[in-house]
Amino acid sequence: MNCSEAINLLSALHDGELSSDLHQSVEQHVRQCESCAAAHADFVALSSLVIEQSTLEPPADLWGRIESTLDSDSTAIAPVAPAKNWRDLFRDSKRSRATVAVVLIAVFGFAFIVHETMDHGHDEHLAVNFDQFLNEFPKSPERAQKLLHANYPSDLVDVDQATLEVKYRPAVANSLPEGYTLDSVHLVRMPCCLCVEALCTAPDGTRVAVLEHAVDQPVWFGDRPTEECDFNGRKARLVHFDGQIAATWMSDKRFLTVIGIRDTDEITELMKHLDPPQA
Amino acid sequence: MTESLADIISGCQSNERSAQQQLYELHSRRVYRLCVRLVGKQDASDVTQQTFLKVFRTIHQFSGGSRFETWLHRVTVNECLQHTRSRIRRPEIALNVDPVVSSQTGLAAESAELLQAALDRLEPELRTIFVLREIEELSYAELAETLDVSAGTVASRLNRARTHLKELLTQLGWEA
Questions:
Q1: Model pTM?
Q2: Lowest-pLDDT range, A211-220, A254-263, B69-78?
Q3: Using CB atoms, which residue from A46, A58, A69 is nearest to B32?
Q4: B120 min Cα distance to partner chain A (Å)
Q5: Predicted ipTM?
Q6: Which DSSP string corresponds to A114-174?
Q7: Does A79 contact B at CB distance below 8 Å?
């Protein structure tokens, strides 16, 4: 074993995570190699520096704060409630300030279609993929996008190319709220149809994704509780996940979905630009 | 009578408040301690709060396929990383964190503060894996599952974390 091989295994050696044969080989190299021995000794010294802070206690009022928010959740988020004034639904401004994202109807529509047509086992598989996408987006919109593209063929295009392909002007081509930028547009070939998926950046640097597709199907939010809200006469279904909000609504003959929105003001603003009222 | 963890989780999945409180009481110290290490004491209680809210809102997704503690670690780490990224996006908020309050005195306290100062300067992903390994004592398999990376990535990332941490400590005056 040489240094370049051994150096990558020093942590695993230190943590006792090597097989016995490999452990023996690396250990033998470390005994004979001054630089690897020094690096290994550093790792040992670092571990000895770690002192357990067992006295750390959460603040005494923390459970009370959590309970209070849970209480407001239960009154603010009614599952599929009749449309009502959406402003009343989001009094918890701290929660609603979470990362903004706009997620695309195509994912939901597609999931729904397959949900209706596939066997249960496949259904579970889709649910997992869907969860992965929703779980990934708040952490890394780019990784979530890659996940989507890994599952379905996609092409990076500009708005004009997208318009030619899907035969309608994508919503992101209308306009975006002030300060938002359009970062990328992809055409994603899903089993239901050719979908337009766009990634944008909000003024605060958070990422926003927009999906649009032309299939007239209700959307599916998996097992997550949903609510229906009225935005100036337009009905949208909302779902909360990971501190974010996803919203979907019908626009003309298509669906638009917005995921990870900070608050309902942002939904209104995005709706105004992506899907302006018809004259 | 003490309920089993499975019963408590089941109660949480039914939105039972007593089960949620039991779960909080069982795991809040561990979550809080991890948050202190990853985001600093000044923000740890807020992130702990967000973590438990997320746990209660998404616990219906916990299928039992992994250990609950692993799932909880994953949620906690994600909340901490999300919080750290949001602070990076808001440069007006200082990234330096308060020193961890230590019960040790003298050299031990100095070492603890030095370590925390170096950890604060470490990239979030490297800080996370180091803390999970050295303080939470997760195995490589648990680290891989918690961080959703391969075992090979765990080993190489830990190597980088330790090497970089040692460099940072040396810059701060630490002598091994």
A1: 0.52
A2: A211-220
A3: A58
A4: 14
A5: 0.81
A6: HHHHS-HHHHHHHHHHHHHHHHHHHH-HHHHHHHHHHHS-EEEE-HHHHHHHHSS--GGGT
A7: no
